[in-house]
Amino acid sequence: MEIIDGKLMAQQLKNEIAAEVNDLIAKGERPPHLVAVIVGHDGGAEAYVANKEKNCLAVGFRSTNLHFDENITEQELLDEIYKLNDDPEVDGFIIQMPLPKHIDAQKVTEAIDWRKDVDGFHPVNVGRMTIGLPAFKPATPSGIIELLRRYNIPTKGKHAVVIGRSNIVGKPIASMLMQKAYPGDCTVTICHSSTPDIKEQCRRADIIIAALGKPGFVTEDMVKEGAVVIDVGTTRVPDSTKKSGSRLCGDVDFDNVAPKCSYITPVPGGVGPMTNCILLKNTLSARKNNLPG
Amino acid sequence: MEIIDGKLMAQQLKNEIAAEVNDLIAKGERPPHLVAVIVGHDGGAEAYVANKEKNCLAVGFRSTNLHFDENITEQELLDEIYKLNDDPEVDGFIIQMPLPKHIDAQKVTEAIDWRKDVDGFHPVNVGRMTIGLPAFKPATPSGIIELLRRYNIPTKGKHAVVIGRSNIVGKPIASMLMQKAYPGDCTVTICHSSTPDIKEQCRRADIIIAALGKPGFVTEDMVKEGAVVIDVGTTRVPDSTKKSGSRLCGDVDFDNVAPKCSYITPVPGGVGPMTNCILLKNTLSARKNNLPG
Questions:
Q1: In this structure, are residues A203 and A191 in contact, taking their beta carbons and an 8 Å threshold?
Q2: ipTM, interface predicted TM-score of the complex
Q3: B28-135 topology per CATH
Protein backbone atom coordinates (compact mmCIF):
# COMPACT_ATOMS: atom_id res chain seq x y z
CA MET A 1 0.00 0.00 0.00
CA GLU A 2 1.29 3.40 -1.00
CA ILE A 3 -0.09 6.72 0.20
CA ILE A 4 -0.18 9.19 -2.68
CA ASP A 5 1.70 12.28 -1.61
CA GLY A 6 -0.30 15.12 -3.14
CA LYS A 7 1.83 17.77 -1.47
CA LEU A 8 5.02 16.37 -2.98
CA MET A 9 3.47 15.97 -6.43
CA ALA A 10 2.11 19.51 -6.26
CA GLN A 11 5.55 20.81 -5.33
CA GLN A 12 7.07 18.94 -8.29
CA LEU A 13 4.46 20.39 -10.63
CA LYS A 14 5.03 23.89 -9.24
CA ASN A 15 8.78 23.50 -9.77
CA GLU A 16 8.20 22.45 -13.39
CA ILE A 17 5.92 25.45 -13.95
CA ALA A 18 8.40 27.83 -12.31
CA ALA A 19 11.15 26.52 -14.59
CA GLU A 20 9.00 27.18 -17.66
CA VAL A 21 8.22 30.69 -16.42
CA ASN A 22 11.94 31.31 -15.95
CA ASP A 23 12.52 30.20 -19.53
CA LEU A 24 9.88 32.62 -20.78
CA ILE A 25 11.40 35.50 -18.82
CA ALA A 26 14.92 34.57 -19.96
CA LYS A 27 13.63 34.90 -23.53
CA GLY A 28 12.42 38.41 -22.71
CA GLU A 29 8.75 37.41 -22.68
CA ARG A 30 6.23 38.40 -20.04
CA PRO A 31 5.20 35.85 -17.38
CA PRO A 32 1.72 34.29 -17.35
CA HIS A 33 -0.95 36.50 -15.81
CA LEU A 34 -3.92 35.09 -13.90
CA VAL A 35 -6.79 37.31 -12.80
CA ALA A 36 -9.37 36.44 -10.13
CA VAL A 37 -12.71 38.24 -10.11
CA ILE A 38 -14.39 38.48 -6.70
CA VAL A 39 -17.82 39.98 -6.12
CA GLY A 40 -18.78 40.99 -2.58
CA HIS A 41 -17.20 39.55 0.54
CA ASP A 42 -17.02 35.89 1.44
CA GLY A 43 -14.43 34.60 3.86
CA GLY A 44 -13.98 31.29 2.05
CA ALA A 45 -13.63 32.91 -1.35
CA GLU A 46 -11.15 35.46 -0.04
CA ALA A 47 -9.00 32.77 1.56
CA TYR A 48 -9.06 30.80 -1.70
CA VAL A 49 -8.05 33.82 -3.74
CA ALA A 50 -5.28 34.76 -1.29
CA ASN A 51 -3.93 31.22 -1.62
CA LYS A 52 -4.17 31.44 -5.41
CA GLU A 53 -2.15 34.67 -5.29
CA LYS A 54 0.51 33.07 -3.10
CA ASN A 55 0.80 30.17 -5.56
CA CYS A 56 1.04 32.52 -8.52
CA LEU A 57 3.85 34.50 -6.98
CA ALA A 58 5.69 31.30 -5.99
CA VAL A 59 5.96 30.23 -9.65
CA GLY A 60 6.70 33.71 -11.03
CA PHE A 61 3.22 34.52 -12.41
CA ARG A 62 1.65 37.93 -12.37
CA SER A 63 -1.50 37.81 -10.25
CA THR A 64 -4.36 40.31 -10.12
CA ASN A 65 -7.43 40.24 -7.92
CA LEU A 66 -10.38 42.34 -9.07
CA HIS A 67 -12.79 43.03 -6.23
CA PHE A 68 -16.24 44.34 -7.08
CA ASP A 69 -18.96 45.54 -4.77
CA GLU A 70 -21.73 43.01 -4.14
CA ASN A 71 -24.17 45.50 -5.68
CA ILE A 72 -22.50 45.39 -9.09
CA THR A 73 -25.14 44.77 -11.76
CA GLU A 74 -25.02 41.74 -14.03
CA GLN A 75 -24.35 43.97 -17.04
CA GLU A 76 -21.49 45.77 -15.28
CA LEU A 77 -19.93 42.43 -14.39
CA LEU A 78 -20.37 41.17 -17.97
CA ASP A 79 -18.66 44.32 -19.22
CA GLU A 80 -15.72 43.66 -16.90
CA ILE A 81 -15.49 40.13 -18.33
CA TYR A 82 -15.48 41.45 -21.89
CA LYS A 83 -12.58 43.75 -20.91
CA LEU A 84 -10.65 40.77 -19.57
CA ASN A 85 -11.48 38.77 -22.72
CA ASP A 86 -10.00 41.57 -24.84
CA ASP A 87 -6.97 42.31 -22.67
CA PRO A 88 -3.91 40.77 -24.38
CA GLU A 89 -2.01 40.87 -21.07
CA VAL A 90 -4.52 38.61 -19.32
CA ASP A 91 -3.92 34.93 -20.09
CA GLY A 92 -6.60 33.42 -17.93
CA PHE A 93 -9.16 34.44 -15.38
CA ILE A 94 -11.54 32.92 -12.91
CA ILE A 95 -14.79 34.17 -11.43
CA GLN A 96 -15.02 33.29 -7.78
CA MET A 97 -18.32 31.55 -7.02
CA PRO A 98 -20.89 31.92 -5.57
CA LEU A 99 -22.05 35.18 -7.13
CA PRO A 100 -24.80 37.32 -5.54
CA LYS A 101 -28.29 36.06 -6.37
CA HIS A 102 -29.16 38.91 -8.72
CA ILE A 103 -26.44 37.72 -11.13
CA ASP A 104 -26.95 34.71 -13.42
CA ALA A 105 -23.81 32.64 -12.77
CA GLN A 106 -24.26 30.49 -15.89
CA LYS A 107 -24.55 33.60 -18.08
CA VAL A 108 -21.36 34.97 -16.53
CA THR A 109 -19.52 31.67 -17.08
CA GLU A 110 -20.58 31.60 -20.73
CA ALA A 111 -19.43 35.21 -21.23
CA ILE A 112 -15.81 34.21 -20.58
CA ASP A 113 -13.73 33.68 -23.71
CA TRP A 114 -13.23 29.92 -23.48
CA ARG A 115 -9.57 30.33 -24.45
CA LYS A 116 -9.09 32.20 -21.14
CA ASP A 117 -11.38 29.91 -19.12
CA VAL A 118 -8.67 28.29 -17.01
CA ASP A 119 -11.31 26.90 -14.62
CA GLY A 120 -12.63 24.79 -17.51
CA PHE A 121 -16.31 25.48 -16.78
CA HIS A 122 -17.30 27.08 -20.12
CA PRO A 123 -19.55 24.78 -22.20
CA VAL A 124 -17.01 24.89 -25.07
CA ASN A 125 -14.32 23.47 -22.78
CA VAL A 126 -16.72 20.91 -21.30
CA GLY A 127 -17.79 19.88 -24.79
CA ARG A 128 -14.26 19.71 -26.19
CA MET A 129 -13.13 17.61 -23.23
CA THR A 130 -16.07 15.24 -23.73
CA ILE A 131 -15.31 14.84 -27.44
CA GLY A 132 -11.64 14.20 -26.59
CA LEU A 133 -10.22 17.45 -27.99
CA PRO A 134 -7.63 19.63 -26.23
CA ALA A 135 -9.44 21.84 -23.70
CA PHE A 136 -9.11 23.54 -20.35
CA LYS A 137 -10.34 20.96 -17.89
CA PRO A 138 -11.57 21.56 -14.34
CA ALA A 139 -8.96 21.59 -11.61
CA THR A 140 -10.03 18.70 -9.39
CA PRO A 141 -10.43 15.97 -12.03
CA SER A 142 -7.29 17.20 -13.79
CA GLY A 143 -5.44 16.98 -10.49
CA ILE A 144 -6.57 13.36 -10.11
CA ILE A 145 -5.36 12.52 -13.63
CA GLU A 146 -2.03 14.18 -12.80
CA LEU A 147 -1.65 12.06 -9.64
CA LEU A 148 -2.45 8.83 -11.53
CA ARG A 149 0.14 9.78 -14.15
CA ARG A 150 2.87 10.75 -11.70
CA TYR A 151 2.46 7.47 -9.80
CA ASN A 152 2.38 5.48 -13.08
CA ILE A 153 -0.83 3.82 -11.95
CA PRO A 154 -2.15 1.47 -14.67
CA THR A 155 -5.60 2.53 -15.89
CA LYS A 156 -6.16 0.86 -19.29
CA GLY A 157 -9.01 -1.65 -19.05
CA LYS A 158 -9.44 -1.00 -15.34
CA HIS A 159 -12.92 -0.51 -13.93
CA ALA A 160 -13.27 2.94 -12.38
CA VAL A 161 -16.28 3.66 -10.20
CA VAL A 162 -17.02 7.35 -9.67
CA ILE A 163 -19.30 8.29 -6.76
CA GLY A 164 -20.95 11.64 -7.43
CA ARG A 165 -22.16 13.29 -10.65
CA SER A 166 -21.35 16.95 -10.01
CA ASN A 167 -20.38 19.13 -12.96
CA ILE A 168 -17.07 20.03 -11.34
CA VAL A 169 -15.82 16.58 -10.27
CA GLY A 170 -17.94 13.49 -10.97
CA LYS A 171 -18.95 14.06 -14.58
CA PRO A 172 -15.59 15.42 -15.79
CA ILE A 173 -13.49 12.71 -14.10
CA ALA A 174 -15.81 10.08 -15.61
CA SER A 175 -15.36 11.72 -18.99
CA MET A 176 -11.56 11.86 -18.67
CA LEU A 177 -11.22 8.27 -17.47
CA MET A 178 -13.24 6.88 -20.40
CA GLN A 179 -11.14 8.58 -23.11
CA LYS A 180 -8.71 6.48 -25.13
CA ALA A 181 -5.65 7.96 -23.41
CA TYR A 182 -3.33 7.44 -20.47
CA PRO A 183 -4.43 7.96 -17.76
CA GLY A 184 -7.80 6.76 -19.01
CA ASP A 185 -9.16 3.97 -21.20
CA CYS A 186 -11.11 2.73 -18.17
CA THR A 187 -14.49 1.09 -18.07
CA VAL A 188 -16.31 3.76 -16.08
CA THR A 189 -19.33 3.48 -13.81
CA ILE A 190 -20.89 6.63 -12.42
CA CYS A 191 -22.95 6.29 -9.21
CA HIS A 192 -24.97 8.96 -7.44
CA SER A 193 -27.84 9.68 -5.08
CA SER A 194 -30.24 7.48 -7.09
CA THR A 195 -27.92 4.45 -7.22
CA PRO A 196 -29.48 1.77 -5.01
CA ASP A 197 -26.39 -0.46 -4.69
CA ILE A 198 -23.36 1.82 -4.35
CA LYS A 199 -21.63 -0.65 -2.05
CA GLU A 200 -21.81 -3.45 -4.60
CA GLN A 201 -20.79 -1.16 -7.44
CA CYS A 202 -17.71 -0.08 -5.47
CA ARG A 203 -16.76 -3.61 -4.52
CA ARG A 204 -16.12 -4.37 -8.20
CA ALA A 205 -13.94 -1.30 -8.77
CA ASP A 206 -10.23 -1.30 -9.56
CA ILE A 207 -10.28 2.46 -9.04
CA ILE A 208 -12.71 4.33 -6.78
CA ILE A 209 -13.17 8.09 -7.09
CA ALA A 210 -15.14 9.27 -4.05
CA ALA A 211 -16.62 12.70 -4.72
CA LEU A 212 -19.93 12.89 -2.92
CA GLY A 213 -19.05 14.99 0.13
CA LYS A 214 -20.09 12.55 2.86
CA PRO A 215 -17.35 12.08 5.48
CA GLY A 216 -16.22 8.46 5.81
CA PHE A 217 -18.79 7.16 3.30
CA VAL A 218 -16.44 4.63 1.66
CA THR A 219 -15.88 1.89 4.19
CA GLU A 220 -13.57 -1.11 4.17
CA ASP A 221 -16.31 -3.54 3.05
CA MET A 222 -16.79 -1.51 -0.15
CA VAL A 223 -13.22 -1.81 -1.34
CA LYS A 224 -11.65 -4.68 -3.28
CA GLU A 225 -8.19 -5.84 -2.22
CA GLY A 226 -5.59 -3.90 -4.23
CA ALA A 227 -7.92 -1.12 -5.37
CA VAL A 228 -6.79 2.46 -6.01
CA VAL A 229 -8.84 4.88 -3.89
CA ILE A 230 -8.96 8.60 -4.69
CA ASP A 231 -10.69 10.71 -2.05
CA VAL A 232 -12.08 14.04 -3.24
CA GLY A 233 -14.09 14.77 -0.09
CA THR A 234 -13.21 17.88 1.91
CA THR A 235 -15.89 18.30 4.54
CA ARG A 236 -14.97 20.37 7.58
CA VAL A 237 -15.98 18.52 10.75
CA PRO A 238 -15.70 19.63 14.39
CA ASP A 239 -12.59 18.34 16.17
CA SER A 240 -11.83 19.59 19.66
CA THR A 241 -8.27 18.20 19.52
CA LYS A 242 -7.40 20.79 16.82
CA LYS A 243 -6.49 24.35 17.58
CA SER A 244 -8.96 25.55 14.95
CA GLY A 245 -11.68 23.34 16.47
CA SER A 246 -12.21 21.48 13.21
CA ARG A 247 -10.48 19.33 10.61
CA LEU A 248 -10.94 18.40 6.95
CA CYS A 249 -12.55 15.01 6.50
CA GLY A 250 -12.54 12.94 3.32
CA ASP A 251 -15.25 10.70 1.86
CA VAL A 252 -13.18 7.62 2.71
CA ASP A 253 -12.74 5.91 6.09
CA PHE A 254 -8.98 6.16 5.55
CA ASP A 255 -7.68 4.17 8.53
CA ASN A 256 -9.70 1.07 7.73
CA VAL A 257 -9.67 1.33 3.93
CA ALA A 258 -5.99 2.11 3.41
CA PRO A 259 -4.63 -1.37 4.31
CA LYS A 260 -6.63 -2.92 1.42
CA CYS A 261 -5.49 -0.44 -1.23
CA SER A 262 -2.62 -0.48 -3.68
CA TYR A 263 -2.73 3.34 -3.66
CA ILE A 264 -4.81 5.81 -1.68
CA THR A 265 -4.95 9.58 -1.33
CA PRO A 266 -5.14 11.07 2.17
CA VAL A 267 -7.26 14.07 3.19
CA PRO A 268 -5.72 16.56 3.58
CA GLY A 269 -2.59 16.23 1.45
CA GLY A 270 -3.96 14.18 -1.46
CA VAL A 271 -6.08 15.62 -4.25
CA GLY A 272 -6.37 19.10 -2.67
CA PRO A 273 -2.81 20.39 -3.16
CA MET A 274 -2.78 19.17 -6.77
CA THR A 275 -6.06 20.91 -7.55
CA ASN A 276 -4.58 24.32 -6.76
CA CYS A 277 -1.69 23.73 -9.14
CA ILE A 278 -3.86 22.85 -12.13
CA LEU A 279 -5.03 26.45 -12.30
CA LEU A 280 -1.37 27.46 -12.68
CA LYS A 281 -0.78 24.74 -15.28
CA ASN A 282 -3.81 25.86 -17.29
CA THR A 283 -2.73 29.50 -17.10
CA LEU A 284 0.75 28.59 -18.34
CA SER A 285 -0.87 26.73 -21.25
CA ALA A 286 -3.00 29.79 -22.00
CA ARG A 287 0.13 31.98 -21.93
CA LYS A 288 1.72 29.68 -24.52
CA ASN A 289 -1.53 29.68 -26.56
CA ASN A 290 -1.78 25.93 -26.08
CA LEU A 291 -4.75 24.00 -24.86
CA PRO A 292 -4.02 21.15 -22.44
CA GLY A 293 -4.12 17.84 -24.36
CA MET B 1 -41.55 -9.14 -23.67
CA GLU B 2 -42.49 -6.15 -25.78
CA ILE B 3 -40.87 -5.18 -29.06
CA ILE B 4 -40.43 -1.42 -29.20
CA ASP B 5 -42.04 -0.17 -32.38
CA GLY B 6 -39.74 2.58 -33.55
CA LYS B 7 -41.69 3.11 -36.76
CA LEU B 8 -44.93 3.71 -34.88
CA MET B 9 -43.25 6.03 -32.35
CA ALA B 10 -41.59 7.94 -35.18
CA GLN B 11 -44.94 8.33 -36.93
CA GLN B 12 -46.50 9.64 -33.70
CA LEU B 13 -43.66 12.13 -33.26
CA LYS B 14 -43.97 13.25 -36.89
CA ASN B 15 -47.72 13.76 -36.43
CA GLU B 16 -47.08 15.89 -33.35
CA ILE B 17 -44.51 17.97 -35.23
CA ALA B 18 -46.83 18.38 -38.23
CA ALA B 19 -49.60 19.60 -35.91
CA GLU B 20 -47.25 22.22 -34.44
CA VAL B 21 -46.22 23.35 -37.91
CA ASN B 22 -49.88 23.69 -38.85
CA ASP B 23 -50.41 25.87 -35.78
CA LEU B 24 -47.50 28.09 -36.80
CA ILE B 25 -48.83 28.47 -40.33
CA ALA B 26 -52.38 29.11 -39.06
CA LYS B 27 -50.90 32.00 -37.04
CA GLY B 28 -49.41 33.40 -40.24
CA GLU B 29 -45.84 32.43 -39.31
CA ARG B 30 -43.37 30.74 -41.60
CA PRO B 31 -42.69 27.00 -41.22
CA PRO B 32 -39.37 25.69 -39.85
CA HIS B 33 -36.57 25.61 -42.41
CA LEU B 34 -33.84 22.97 -42.36
CA VAL B 35 -30.81 23.21 -44.66
CA ALA B 36 -28.45 20.36 -45.52
CA VAL B 37 -24.95 21.15 -46.78
CA ILE B 38 -23.41 18.48 -49.01
CA VAL B 39 -19.88 18.64 -50.39
CA GLY B 40 -18.98 16.40 -53.33
CA HIS B 41 -20.82 13.22 -54.22
CA ASP B 42 -21.37 10.27 -51.93
CA GLY B 43 -24.18 7.81 -52.54
CA GLY B 44 -24.85 7.23 -48.85
CA ALA B 45 -24.90 10.93 -48.02
CA GLU B 46 -27.20 11.71 -50.94
CA ALA B 47 -29.65 8.98 -49.92
CA TYR B 48 -29.63 10.32 -46.35
CA VAL B 49 -30.27 13.86 -47.50
CA ALA B 50 -33.05 12.77 -49.87
CA ASN B 51 -34.70 10.98 -46.96
CA LYS B 52 -34.29 14.05 -44.78
CA GLU B 53 -36.00 16.13 -47.46
CA LYS B 54 -38.90 13.68 -47.69
CA ASN B 55 -39.34 13.84 -43.89
CA CYS B 56 -39.23 17.64 -43.91
CA LEU B 57 -41.92 17.89 -46.54
CA ALA B 58 -44.08 15.32 -44.74
CA VAL B 59 -44.30 17.55 -41.65
CA GLY B 60 -44.64 20.83 -43.54
CA PHE B 61 -41.06 22.10 -43.16
CA ARG B 62 -39.18 24.03 -45.78
CA SER B 63 -36.15 22.00 -46.87
CA THR B 64 -33.08 23.18 -48.78
CA ASN B 65 -30.11 21.15 -49.95
CA LEU B 66 -26.95 23.07 -50.76
CA HIS B 67 -24.59 21.06 -52.94
CA PHE B 68 -21.01 22.22 -53.29
CA ASP B 69 -18.28 20.90 -55.54
CA GLU B 70 -15.78 18.61 -53.82
CA ASN B 71 -13.06 21.13 -54.69
CA ILE B 72 -14.60 23.89 -52.59
CA THR B 73 -11.90 25.35 -50.31
CA GLU B 74 -12.21 25.26 -46.55
CA GLN B 75 -12.55 29.05 -46.45
CA GLU B 76 -15.29 29.05 -49.07
CA LEU B 77 -17.20 26.43 -47.10
CA LEU B 78 -16.73 28.41 -43.87
CA ASP B 79 -18.09 31.50 -45.64
CA GLU B 80 -21.17 29.54 -46.69
CA ILE B 81 -21.65 28.51 -43.07
CA TYR B 82 -21.38 32.11 -41.88
CA LYS B 83 -24.10 33.01 -44.40
CA LEU B 84 -26.37 30.31 -42.99
CA ASN B 85 -25.58 31.46 -39.44
CA ASP B 86 -26.71 34.99 -40.38
CA ASP B 87 -29.75 34.02 -42.45
CA PRO B 88 -32.87 34.68 -40.32
CA GLU B 89 -34.90 32.32 -42.53
CA VAL B 90 -32.67 29.33 -41.73
CA ASP B 91 -33.59 27.74 -38.40
CA GLY B 92 -31.15 24.86 -38.43
CA PHE B 93 -28.61 23.26 -40.70
CA ILE B 94 -26.49 20.17 -40.93
CA ILE B 95 -23.20 19.49 -42.68
CA GLN B 96 -23.22 16.08 -44.27
CA MET B 97 -20.12 14.11 -43.22
CA PRO B 98 -17.59 12.96 -44.28
CA LEU B 99 -16.07 16.09 -45.82
CA PRO B 100 -13.19 15.92 -48.35
CA LYS B 101 -9.80 15.49 -46.71
CA HIS B 102 -8.58 19.02 -47.43
CA ILE B 103 -11.30 20.39 -45.13
CA ASP B 104 -10.98 20.29 -41.33
CA ALA B 105 -14.31 18.78 -40.26
CA GLN B 106 -13.92 19.87 -36.64
CA LYS B 107 -13.27 23.47 -37.69
CA VAL B 108 -16.37 23.38 -39.85
CA THR B 109 -18.49 21.94 -37.02
CA GLU B 110 -17.27 24.66 -34.66
CA ALA B 111 -18.07 27.38 -37.22
CA ILE B 112 -21.79 26.59 -37.00
CA ASP B 113 -23.78 28.90 -34.74
CA TRP B 114 -24.63 26.46 -31.97
CA ARG B 115 -28.18 27.81 -31.84
CA LYS B 116 -28.64 26.40 -35.37
CA ASP B 117 -26.66 23.20 -34.74
CA VAL B 118 -29.61 20.80 -34.90
CA ASP B 119 -27.22 17.83 -35.19
CA GLY B 120 -25.95 18.67 -31.68
CA PHE B 121 -22.26 18.19 -32.51
CA HIS B 122 -20.99 21.70 -31.65
CA PRO B 123 -18.88 21.72 -28.46
CA VAL B 124 -21.27 24.25 -26.87
CA ASN B 125 -24.16 21.84 -27.30
CA VAL B 126 -22.08 18.88 -26.11
CA GLY B 127 -20.95 20.90 -23.09
CA ARG B 128 -24.42 22.20 -22.25
CA MET B 129 -25.86 18.69 -22.49
CA THR B 130 -23.14 17.36 -20.18
CA ILE B 131 -23.77 20.07 -17.61
CA GLY B 132 -27.51 19.35 -17.80
CA LEU B 133 -28.58 22.58 -19.54
CA PRO B 134 -31.02 22.78 -22.46
CA ALA B 135 -29.13 22.00 -25.68
CA PHE B 136 -29.45 20.45 -29.10
CA LYS B 137 -28.57 16.81 -28.55
CA PRO B 138 -27.45 14.30 -31.17
CA ALA B 139 -30.17 12.42 -33.00
CA THR B 140 -29.47 8.80 -32.07
CA PRO B 141 -29.20 9.14 -28.28
CA SER B 142 -32.14 11.58 -28.28
CA GLY B 143 -34.13 9.01 -30.24
CA ILE B 144 -33.35 6.39 -27.59
CA ILE B 145 -34.49 8.75 -24.81
CA GLU B 146 -37.68 9.42 -26.77
CA LEU B 147 -38.39 5.68 -27.08
CA LEU B 148 -37.82 5.09 -23.35
CA ARG B 149 -40.18 7.97 -22.58
CA ARG B 150 -42.91 6.90 -24.99
CA TYR B 151 -42.89 3.36 -23.57
CA ASN B 152 -42.85 4.69 -19.97
CA ILE B 153 -39.86 2.48 -19.23
CA PRO B 154 -38.64 3.05 -15.64
CA THR B 155 -35.06 4.35 -15.55
CA LYS B 156 -34.49 5.94 -12.12
CA GLY B 157 -31.90 3.94 -10.17
CA LYS B 158 -31.57 1.39 -12.96
CA HIS B 159 -28.14 0.27 -14.07
CA ALA B 160 -27.55 1.15 -17.72
CA VAL B 161 -24.58 -0.39 -19.50
CA VAL B 162 -23.53 1.39 -22.69
CA ILE B 163 -21.30 -0.52 -25.12
CA GLY B 164 -19.34 1.92 -27.26
CA ARG B 165 -17.84 5.35 -26.51
CA SER B 166 -18.35 7.18 -29.81
CA ASN B 167 -18.96 10.91 -29.73
CA ILE B 168 -22.25 10.51 -31.59
CA VAL B 169 -23.85 7.66 -29.60
CA GLY B 170 -22.02 6.11 -26.65
CA LYS B 171 -20.78 9.19 -24.82
CA PRO B 172 -23.95 11.28 -25.28
CA ILE B 173 -26.37 8.48 -24.31
CA ALA B 174 -24.23 7.82 -21.20
CA SER B 175 -24.37 11.54 -20.41
CA MET B 176 -28.15 11.73 -20.88
CA LEU B 177 -28.87 8.61 -18.84
CA MET B 178 -26.85 9.85 -15.84
CA GLN B 179 -28.67 13.22 -15.58
CA LYS B 180 -31.18 13.72 -12.79
CA ALA B 181 -34.18 13.57 -15.14
CA TYR B 182 -36.66 11.16 -16.69
CA PRO B 183 -35.62 9.25 -18.72
CA GLY B 184 -32.34 9.20 -16.85
CA ASP B 185 -31.15 9.07 -13.24
CA CYS B 186 -29.46 5.75 -14.06
CA THR B 187 -26.25 4.35 -12.68
CA VAL B 188 -24.27 4.28 -15.94
CA THR B 189 -21.40 2.04 -16.98
CA ILE B 190 -19.62 2.74 -20.26
CA CYS B 191 -17.74 -0.16 -21.89
CA HIS B 192 -15.57 -0.08 -24.98
CA SER B 193 -12.76 -1.77 -26.88
CA SER B 194 -10.48 -1.76 -23.80
CA THR B 195 -13.06 -3.29 -21.46
CA PRO B 196 -11.84 -6.82 -20.66
CA ASP B 197 -15.13 -8.15 -19.25
CA ILE B 198 -17.96 -6.73 -21.37
CA LYS B 199 -20.01 -9.92 -20.94
CA GLU B 200 -19.97 -9.64 -17.16
CA GLN B 201 -20.65 -5.91 -17.25
CA CYS B 202 -23.70 -6.51 -19.44
CA ARG B 203 -25.02 -9.35 -17.30
CA ARG B 204 -25.55 -6.89 -14.46
CA ALA B 205 -27.43 -4.36 -16.59
CA ASP B 206 -31.07 -3.40 -16.27
CA ILE B 207 -30.71 -1.49 -19.54
CA ILE B 208 -28.21 -2.33 -22.30
CA ILE B 209 -27.41 0.18 -25.03
CA ALA B 210 -25.46 -1.65 -27.76
CA ALA B 211 -23.66 0.86 -29.97
CA LEU B 212 -20.44 -0.75 -31.08
CA GLY B 213 -21.25 -1.77 -34.66
CA LYS B 214 -20.55 -5.50 -34.39
CA PRO B 215 -23.44 -7.60 -35.76
CA GLY B 216 -24.92 -9.97 -33.19
CA PHE B 217 -22.36 -9.04 -30.50
CA VAL B 218 -24.85 -9.08 -27.61
CA THR B 219 -25.77 -12.71 -27.05
CA GLU B 220 -28.34 -14.33 -24.79
CA ASP B 221 -25.79 -15.18 -22.08
CA MET B 222 -24.98 -11.48 -21.67
CA VAL B 223 -28.51 -10.40 -20.84
CA LYS B 224 -30.24 -10.52 -17.47
CA GLU B 225 -33.84 -11.74 -17.36
CA GLY B 226 -36.16 -8.74 -17.75
CA ALA B 227 -33.53 -6.35 -19.12
CA VAL B 228 -34.31 -3.55 -21.58
CA VAL B 229 -32.14 -3.91 -24.70
CA ILE B 230 -31.66 -1.01 -27.11
CA ASP B 231 -29.85 -1.94 -30.33
CA VAL B 232 -28.12 0.92 -32.13
CA GLY B 233 -26.19 -1.28 -34.57
CA THR B 234 -26.86 -0.86 -38.29
CA THR B 235 -24.27 -2.89 -40.13
CA ARG B 236 -25.14 -3.93 -43.68
CA VAL B 237 -24.42 -7.65 -44.15
CA PRO B 238 -24.77 -9.80 -47.28
CA ASP B 239 -28.07 -11.70 -47.50
CA SER B 240 -28.86 -13.63 -50.67
CA THR B 241 -32.52 -14.04 -49.67
CA LYS B 242 -33.04 -10.28 -50.05
CA LYS B 243 -33.66 -8.60 -53.38
CA SER B 244 -30.97 -6.03 -52.57
CA GLY B 245 -28.53 -8.81 -51.66
CA SER B 246 -28.03 -7.43 -48.15
CA ARG B 247 -29.82 -6.54 -44.93
CA LEU B 248 -29.30 -4.29 -41.91
CA CYS B 249 -27.97 -6.16 -38.92
CA GLY B 250 -28.05 -4.93 -35.32
CA ASP B 251 -25.50 -5.42 -32.54
CA VAL B 252 -27.88 -7.80 -30.74
CA ASP B 253 -28.62 -11.46 -31.51
CA PHE B 254 -32.30 -10.53 -31.54
CA ASP B 255 -33.91 -13.98 -31.88
CA ASN B 256 -32.14 -15.43 -28.86
CA VAL B 257 -31.99 -12.29 -26.72
CA ALA B 258 -35.58 -11.06 -27.18
CA PRO B 259 -37.27 -13.79 -25.08
CA LYS B 260 -35.29 -12.67 -21.99
CA CYS B 261 -36.08 -8.96 -22.33
CA SER B 262 -38.83 -6.80 -20.90
CA TYR B 263 -38.37 -4.48 -23.90
CA ILE B 264 -36.16 -4.71 -26.98
CA THR B 265 -35.71 -2.67 -30.14
CA PRO B 266 -35.54 -4.52 -33.47
CA VAL B 267 -33.19 -3.66 -36.36
CA PRO B 268 -34.52 -2.31 -38.62
CA GLY B 269 -37.57 -0.55 -37.18
CA GLY B 270 -36.25 0.35 -33.71
CA VAL B 271 -33.90 3.22 -33.02
CA GLY B 272 -33.36 4.10 -36.70
CA PRO B 273 -36.75 5.61 -37.57
CA MET B 274 -36.76 7.70 -34.37
CA THR B 275 -33.30 9.07 -35.12
CA ASN B 276 -34.48 10.70 -38.34
CA CYS B 277 -37.32 12.46 -36.54
CA ILE B 278 -35.10 14.06 -33.90
CA LEU B 279 -33.60 16.30 -36.56
CA LEU B 280 -37.11 17.56 -37.27
CA LYS B 281 -37.86 17.97 -33.56
CA ASN B 282 -34.65 19.95 -33.04
CA THR B 283 -35.40 22.15 -36.06
CA LEU B 284 -38.89 22.87 -34.74
CA SER B 285 -37.32 23.86 -31.39
CA ALA B 286 -34.90 26.14 -33.24
CA ARG B 287 -37.81 27.71 -35.13
CA LYS B 288 -39.49 28.48 -31.81
CA ASN B 289 -36.16 29.77 -30.40
CA ASN B 290 -36.28 27.08 -27.74
CA LEU B 291 -33.55 24.67 -26.85
CA PRO B 292 -34.65 21.09 -26.16
CA GLY B 293 -34.75 20.54 -22.36
A1: no
A2: 0.96
A3: Rossmann fold (3.40.50)
